[in-house]
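Morning run. Coffee first, then this:
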Amino acid sequence: MKLSSNLFLFLILGCGMLSSIKSDAQNSTGEKITYLSRNIFGFENMFGEARSTQPEQEIFGYLQFPDKFDPANKHPLIIASHGSANWRGHHAKYLDLMRKTGFAVFSIHPFDSRNIDSTVGNQINLTAESVIWDMAMALKAVWNDSRIDNTKIFAAGWSLGGTAVLFNAWMPLQQEAFRAEESFSGYLMWYPACLALPDTDDWDKDFVQIYMGEADNWTPAKPCIDLVHRMNSMGGNANIAIYPGAYHSFDSTLPLTLQPDAYSWAKCDSFKLSPETKKVYDPNNKEIDFSDPQLRRLAYESCATKGEVMAGSSPEYQNAPYEHLASLLSEKIDLN
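And here it is:
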């Protein structure tokens, strides 16, 4: 869906499964592509002249084509990004599925490009605004690739990556980042943070699919459910699958455990968006400023709590989103 107006801001608090186990799925095979993004602090700094004040950052990712790659044909593409613990083993399963279904996959590396291992329990060493911009610039980097069907480019992401996907469905960001012909064709998200939702909604009306655990206390499900209802009330095509009793990263192969360093955002429901300034604000805290690292951390600590977050596999639903996506990609997304 192309451009329209209205403003919204969305507090992006990236998350991902934390574990001392280092996955062997680093998604570091395929054709390496580098492109320029920015390190952005403060949502308002994604817009207008303010963006030029944010440092440039080279990002890399790996482009992989289906096994039956035919250079004479253009291929649909999925641009994918990871959560706050980087690429993990269960992500690779999805990326393989996407390729088997006929998609090329461009897996971007926001963390490795910046020599960052994790943002779990931090969220300051790399902001969500930066990953949002990384995702947008990834689309621009491959838009004119002769091997890609740019009418069928989808965004996909887990947790922090899912939040980056969500923001790329926000029309004011598309107006800012893309030329008139550029846009994603759909959005696939696993447990994104749907917090600090806007007073006014202005969303892409193309296909949206969200997968959430009902018991997720890292990035709670209810705000995402409410958001899907609002998207559809405005003529969108948004869908959400809720898995009862499942926690964050319920599709992971790692066991369900307490994540002592992770913040629970379940009580962070007072952050709002100013349509005029495009800044996150809190009616109860006039000092909030997401462009200031110290004030941003204080804002997080005013509502987020550590020592409560559970994350890991749900034996009952671990494969459910994978199976749903297999059906979705092969039956519901037209590749012809």
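Residues 186 and 206 are 6 Å apart (CA to CA). Good start to the day.
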